[in-house]
Design goal:
By secondary structure, the chain is of the alpha+beta class. A hairpin with a 2-residue loop joins strand 4 and strand 5. The longest helix has 15 residues. The chain is globular, with a radius of gyration of 14 Å. The protein has one domain. The strands form two sheets. Strands 6-3-2-1-7 form a five-stranded antiparallel sheet, covered by helices on one side. It contains two helices and seven strands.
């Protein structure tokens, strides 16, 4: 299981996004201090924890031209859609860049602490 801390554009903890590489499933859990939002597939009115077979819409990278360029430039042709989505989130965490949907991601070490 891999996990990333999700931070909103105001640099506040938003939740934890996880990817079970064995089951090929994504999980999202809101941070305890986040009131949550009414996003389509992580609607706070539906709960604080979510599981899905594909990347959550609010976090997915779907710019087809830019994504195809990344696949080509980084030779990611052998990755499944879920693997590609996770790879891109990890890359954002490494580069400390904001996603196209306004989120930052930070690596969570195996001991549960953030990698700052």
């Amino acid at each position: 299981m891999k996990a990333l801390l999700v931070i909103d554009k105001w640099r506040r903890a938003f939740g934890t996004l996880s990817y079970d590489t064995q089951k090929d499933i994504f999980y999202f859990k809101y941070d305890d201090n986040t009131p949550g939002y009414a996003f389509s597939d992580i609607d706070i009115n539906e709960g604080k924890e979510f599981e899905q077979n594909s990347m959550f819409n609010v976090f997915s990278y779907d710019d087809s031209f830019a994504r195809s360029e990344l696949v080509r430039n980084l030779d990611l042709y052998d990755k499944s859609e879920n693997q590609l989505q996770w790879f891109l989130k990890e890359r954002l965490a490494i580069t400390k860049s904001m996603s196209c949907k306004g989120f930052y991601f930070e690596e969570i070490k195996e001991d549960g602490l953030m990698n700052i």
